[in-house]
């Protein structure tokens, strides 16, 4: 954007650019907090560098919610409520700062629509208006979490049963081996006694 602005200014001249009165603003989305259909816009300002600086700060907050660089649905599956609330509080503070301007809020009356209090109230109203949707998402997440916990418990129970069965089979096989070994020893002993008996009967008496 900087390059395009510089190239345009070099083509038409500084005076023509000033006559255009270009203004820059940001359009921001926070679907979890204010809904998918609602967006936030920063005030229009003439300084591109200031707009880009705010854009970078908002992008960093958004990146904290992203997965591989993309913010997808199902934030609750990857982030905790505390993480989402912390990100929203930082976003709100930055948005209020962008709307009110650095150092200007102290000079504005609380009744002014550009005051920090007024902007904060507008944000709070939008958050409240979307509370039903967030509660629905939270209930759905709780249901999925409970199902996952139940599935995990069943899996653990199956693993424990399989382990018990495996141990029982191992013990049974060990007993069978011991019995077979004892049977072989008994047969060998019986065979030796039989041979000894035959040998003693076959000897001539003196």
Automatic annotation (TrEMBL):
Q: Where is this region: Disordered?
A: 175-206
Please list the residue ranges that the record marks as compositionally biased, kind Basic and acidic residues.
175-191
- Bias (Basic residues): 192-206
Name of protein: Uncharacterized protein
């Amino acid at each position: 954007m900087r390059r395009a602005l510089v190239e345009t200014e070099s083509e038409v001249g500084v005076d023509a650019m000033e006559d255009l009165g270009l203004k820059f603003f940001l359009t921001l989305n926070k679907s979890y907090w204010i809904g998918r259909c609602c967006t936030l816009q920063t005030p229009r300002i003439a300084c591109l560098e200031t707009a880009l600086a705010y854009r970078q700060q908002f992008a960093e907050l958004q990146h904290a919610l992203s997965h591989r660089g993309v913010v997808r649905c199902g934030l609750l599956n990857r982030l905790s409520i505390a993480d989402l609330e912390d990100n929203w509080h930082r976003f709100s503070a930055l948005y209020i700062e962008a709307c009110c301007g650095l150092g200007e809020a102290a000079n504005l009356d609380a009744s002014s629509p550009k005051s920090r209090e007024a902007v904060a109230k507008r944000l709070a109203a939008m958050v409240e208006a979307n509370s039903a949707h967030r509660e629905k998402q939270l209930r759905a997440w709780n249901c999925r979490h409970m199902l996952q916990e139940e599935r995990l418990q069943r899996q653990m129970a199956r693993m424990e049963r399989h382990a018990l069965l495996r141990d029982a089979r191992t013990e049974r096989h060990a007993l069978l081996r011991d019995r077979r070994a004892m049977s072989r020893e008994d047969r060998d002993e019986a065979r030796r006694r039989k041979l000894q008996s035959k040998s003693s009967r076959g000897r001539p008496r003196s």
